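Task: sequence design from structure.
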């Protein structure tokens, strides 16, 4: 049986790479490509592929939004493709078979494809129900990031969001600061901010997010500047453009208390 496969990615080179790797694999029929989220929704609905390589970051709808907007009787097997390890937890939340972190090599690609083949040989009825249940939960309200995926060499481990004291931007990475350790994650601070619970994590500077449960005090410095002090002694500047938001958060937080 040929596995009818759809490739979804807004980058032509990324689509080319997946297509070239699939050409060396037997039993695969590439039925089409999609360049954005809406094209992906239309193609999956019309062609009902068995397998979809689905990019996470796309300009109109991301990969998760594609799944949320599908109205199909049979969900395809999903292999997410992403530049960020951070999306791993959400990928598994919607029961993706696997996820590939760019740039991936042929062995990693083959491993993901083997998992898809194995799954497609068996029954996927149970997992289809699980996927549909998860999508209904996603539609019912926001879900905040509960764990960060951190890569160390060939190992991927997870850090609970509640254990993070602060998050700092460092080039193409963010640094997760914990009580006794810190970890680099390939992601952007803007993306992290959109995923964490805004009732706990607050942006205080263009390069810094703090866990408000770890904030000890706010200090006034010279020239009207402020410093946010954590219980662990860490000190961060409160950016002028973030001061009003921080003040509003404190007032709202105090009312809830």
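Answer:
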């Amino acid at each position: 049986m040929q596995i009818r496969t759809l490739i979804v990615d807004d980058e032509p080179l990324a689509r080319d790479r997946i297509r070239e790797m699939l050409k060396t694999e037997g039993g695969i029929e590439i039925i089409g490509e999609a360049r954005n989220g809406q094209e992906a929704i239309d193609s999956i609905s019309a062609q009902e592929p068995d397998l979809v390589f689905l990019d996470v970051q796309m300009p109109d709808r991301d990969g998760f939004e594609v799944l949320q907007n599908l109205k199909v009787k049979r969900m395809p097997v999903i292999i997410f493709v992403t530049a960020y390890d951070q999306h791993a937890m959400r990928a598994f939340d919607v029961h993706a078979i696997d996820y590939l972190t760019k740039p991936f090599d042929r062995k990693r690609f083959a491993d993901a494809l083997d998992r898809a083949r194995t799954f497609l040989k068996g029954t996927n009825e149970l997992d289809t129900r699980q996927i549909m249940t998860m999508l209904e939960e996603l539609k019912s309200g926001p879900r905040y990031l509960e764990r960060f995926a951190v890569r160390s060499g060939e190992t991927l481990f997870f850090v609970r969001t509640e254990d993070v004291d602060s998050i700092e931007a460092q080039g193409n990475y963010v640094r997760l600061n914990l009580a006794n350790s810190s970890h680099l994650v390939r992601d952007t601070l803007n993306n992290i901010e959109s995923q964490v619970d805004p009732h706990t994590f607050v942006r205080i500077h263009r390069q810094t997010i703090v866990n408000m449960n770890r904030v000890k005090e706010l200090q006034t410095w010279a020239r009207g500047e402020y410093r946010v002090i954590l219980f662990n002694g860490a000190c961060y500047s409160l950016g002028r453009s973030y001061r009003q938001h921080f003040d509003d958060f404190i007032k709202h937080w105090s009312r809830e208390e």
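The domain at 3-140 is CATH 3.40.50.2300 (Rossmann fold).
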